[in-house]
Amino acid sequence: MEYKAEIDIMPLEALLDPQGKAVSSSMKNLGLGEITNVRIGKHITLSVDAKDKAAAEAKVEDACKRLLANEIMERYSFTVKEAVKA
């Protein structure tokens, strides 16, 4: 079966996020000072062929730990759903 995974990767709260800080500063310059504490991360979508949802989730977990996220600096979360056939 084919599954679709959506993965969000964000910098750990304890770490400085230079991109987020730059965007936060720009918000003030644009008259949007009410928007603060911007954090910028990554959103990844991918397809997984697996026998069932649990196997697909295990493969996505493995991909996150081994390649997609740096667990020293980032946290990740994901959802896995059965792919919709067109």
**CATH homology group:** Phosphoribosylformylglycinamidine synthase subunit PurS
Gyration radius over CA: 17 Å
**Structural class by secondary-structure content:** alpha+beta
Mean pLDDT: 96
Structure notes:
The longest helix is centred in the C-terminal third of the chain and has 16 residues. This protein has a single domain, classed as Phosphoribosylformylglycinamidine synthase subunit PurS (Mth169, Chain: A), CATH 3.30.1280. It has 86 residues and is α+β, with helices and mostly antiparallel strands. It is 33% helix and 31% strand. The model has no long low-confidence stretch (mean pLDDT 96). Strands 2-1-3 form a 3-stranded antiparallel β-sheet, with helices on one face. It is built from 2 helices and 3 strands; from the N terminus they run βαβαβ.
Question: What order do the helices and strands come in, and which of them pair?
Answer:
Blueprint: E1 2-11, H1 18-29, E2 42-49, H2 53-68, E3 74-82
Antiparallel strand pairs: 1-2, 1-3
Task: Summarize the entry for a quick read.
33% of the residues lie in helices and 31% in strands.
Features:
86 residues, 3-stranded antiparallel beta sheet, elongated, Mth169, Chain: A, 2 helices, alpha+beta, single chain, 33% helix
